[in-house]
# Entry
Amino acid sequence: MRRLCAPLLGLLVLAGCEGDVGPAGPAGPAGEDFPGPAPQEYTNADGIIGGASYSKWWTTDAAGSGTQPATTASADYYRCKACHAWDGLGNSASYANRTGQSTLNPNRPDVSSVNLRSAATAKSFQALFDLVRHVGARDIDASDNTHADFSSRLTDGQVWNLVKFMREEWVAPNLLYDISVSGPTMYVDYNQTPAVVVAPTVTYSNVGVLGNESNGQSIVANSCAGCHGVDGTGIDIGGRTLGELIRQKPNEAWFKAKFGEPGTGMGPGLVIATSDLQDMYAALANSTNFP
Ligand code: HEC
Ligand code: HEC
# Structure
């Protein structure tokens, strides 16, 4: 549309009036959807091995050297899961009541408030890679709650495995169980002598309700019973049977079934598909079959 020239004429403007606006130009090339094309290193990476690294990156199961770093600080200060939780939700879910150094447990870092699962979908491939390596951050040998510099500890391949794990292999808690966190955010009540840690209550329910129990029984028989026994009581897992672990720590058990327990002979990749994990939970939730 031609712009109005008449008002300008009265102002003795010497320039001429503008002409018609031209036709719209051709459409530009299609843009890339976020996060853009995956780098070759990401494509080549193994997210299941990455899950093993999230637990114990130095083990050979996790493509590490096999030698645990000798530090004066406890290993929890350099294990991803200790600060970010098995579910990746930090201190907002299963680890809401896990104590750390500011809640009177010097052997553990405080659980981070970062939601690693959101970060994994919101950041580009390269940004995640850089955030895991965190060049210039503290050394792992420190009782410190912040994310360490892992650049000289993990190979680039291990970091890409971790990135792939974070983006592709986490199972949403509500597919396996329900969790409720009730009560105050954790703090230390110094008005009491000795001081007392006040923590919320974390409760699990509906473990395995979305799965198929008889399919799950086959999975347990084929993939677990050889070591854990047909009823899951064959190995003492920190004072628990396999069934008890699924029912009491459903936040952790699937992680071990999928990514292994590095360094124990229970390797990564036993049960990978989410539907298989759901079926396995349905079977192991039954305390008659799996006391
Ligand atoms: C001692 C605790 C601790 C450990 C161990 C740890 N992190 Fe972190 N991480 C944090 C904290 C706290 C942050 C938030 C930024 C900061 O304080 O450095 C963070 C940030 C991150 C971020 C960036 C999140 C964002 O939204 O920007 C990623 C990704 C990450 N960590 C992944 C990992 C992985 C993978 C490992 C294991 C190799 C690991 N972390 C080990 C505490 C830890
Ligand atoms: C090759 C033998 C083997 C097989 C097969 C196996 N496990 Fe294990 N599992 C172990 C050993 C050994 C441990 C370590 C016990 C310990 O903590 O000392 C373990 C530990 C675990 C833990 C707890 C890890 C921890 O300490 O926190 C879980 C959960 C678990 N197994 C689940 C399973 C499930 C589910 C299956 C079947 C899908 C399975 N395992 C198959 C040998 C095996």
About this structure: Confidence is low (pLDDT under 50) at residues 6-13. Residues 145 and 258 are 27 Å apart (CA to CA).
